[in-house]
Amino acid sequence: MAKKLKPDRVLFFVTLALVGFGVAMVFSSSAIVAKEKFGDPNYFSFKQLIFAALGLAVMFIVMKVDYHAYRNPAVVFSALSIVVGLLVLVFFLAAAANTHRWIQLAGFSVQPSELAKLALIFFLAYFLEKRKGKVNDLTFTLIPIAIVVALLAGLIVLQPDLGTAISLLVISVVLLFVAGLDLRWIAASIIFAVPAFYLLVFRVKYRRERILAFMNPWEEPLGRGFQIIQSLLSVASGGIAGLGFMEGKQKLFYLPEAHTDFIFAVVGEEMGMIGTCGVLLLFTVFLWRGVRTSMRAPDVFGFYLALGITMMVCVQAFINMSVVLGLLPTKGIPLPFLSYGGSSFVVMLAAVGILLNVSQHSN
Question: Residue 244: its pLDDT value, please?
Answer without folding.
Answer: 87
